[in-house]
Amino acid sequence: MKLSNNALQSNNPSVEIWADSVSLQPFTKEEWRSHQDNNIEKVRKSRVRFHVSNANETALEGAKVVIKQTKANFPFGCGMNQHILTNGDYRDWFVSRFKYTTFTNQMKWYSTEIIQGQENYTISDAMLKFTKENGICVRGHNIFWDDEKYQPEWVKSLSPDELREAAAKRIKSVVTRYKGELIAWDVVNENVHFHFYEDKLGENASELYYLRAYELDPTTTLFMNEYNTIEYSGDKVASPANYFNKLNEILQSPEASEMSFAIGLQCHFGSGRPNLAYMRSGLDFLGQIGFPIWLTETSVDPQPKQAEYFEEILREGYSHPAVKGIIMFAGPAQAGFNTTLLADENFKTTPTGKVVDKLISEWGIGPYTAIADHRGIVDIALHYGEYDVTVTHPLTQHSEKLNISVGKEFSHKNVKMHA
For the chain, does the N or the C end have fewer beta carbons within 10 angstroms? Predict the structure, then answer.
């Protein structure tokens, strides 16, 4: 499969492009936020009308309608580590908030095969059991990491033939073990910045491992996961254009056309105000390719305005139509998180944690309460997802309960009260 993006680049170096009468002016913070909110209304929500009537179909003015989301359509999750197995407070904190996660280190090769030939999946197996019991979806992270310093120590000294054999065993072991259990795999992590496998095994190493992962588990979405593609304009190595070029290399074979593929952007922001304009331009560029985009490891370094900046980053991601999921690499101090801290050592919510809780509520949980007007009508905008709805008669207090699924096509629901 060969990707093209002719709207963004020309293959003819002799062509010059000129722009006439260009005027640039900055957005205010309020204008930027307004654009985000307008996008959210367009791409994440539907206007829903409830029409409440008596059994004889006369309008029931004053009926109370309470709406609570039971399942979000947009995956908004958080990284998880092994402390979830032993810390009850951490378990309670996590389960009350998130239905999507990525294990931060526990599936990586250096965690599962510390000594050559001695595989140990005890921790990742236990964590996966916990997530299944609590209805939490897991992104697999990762099969390989292209940075030399993050190889198992014994891997670094292997000859090319030995590495090829060890890597073949690794990918077969981990992918078949978790086949059908994960929603995604980061196959060759950070292979725009680094090229350990390409240097040892040939320039098409990443391509071959994506094809092999697809062969072993054809139903799981395969990600190319990279940092600084949308965070920092000064890192030219992993620019959106270079990300696109690497993606093209991976997907050049005809066999790749059947692959379920997605774009993973880690979204680790350092100190200082985030460059949201660069972030948006990168999302615009990569969004035109047509693959879903996830922000896979979203974080921001500690600083006085950390909470404010983290909210800006999360809102920018959620409001972009090409972004289909967000995972934060953040958490409580008791689990060892110290960069983007959401709860302190006593599980008191930090300012950054309050931002996350606010957005979880704002993006759908509710509950929302409304009163039917004289026509028996309640109009409300709801985020895509599954909802429990309770409608209560204003005089008898009799209640009717229903479940609805809100998406692009949902617009109207009739509710008849029989008491």
Answer: C
pTM above threshold 0.90: yes
* pLDDT tens per residue across span 180-231: 999 999 999 999 999 999 999 999 999 999 999 999 999 999 999 999 999 9
Which of 190, 207, 226, 311 is catalytic? The answer is 190
Rounded to whole angstroms, how far apart are CA atoms 179 and 217?
6
Instruction: Kindly report, residue by residue over 40-71, the tens digit of the pLDDT.
Output: 999 999 999 999 999 888 999 999 999 999 99
- Residue 297 is a catalytic residue: yes
Active site residue 31: no
Question: What pLDDT score was predicted for residue 23?
Answer: 56
Instruction: For each of the domains in the chain, give its residue range(s) and CATH number, in order of start.
Output: 45-63+372-417 (2.60.40.1120), 75-351 (3.20.20.80)
pLDDT tens digit sequence for 227-252: 999 999 999 999 999 999 999 999 99
Task: Please pick, among 113, 231, 297, 312, the residue that the annotation labels catalytic.
Answer: 297
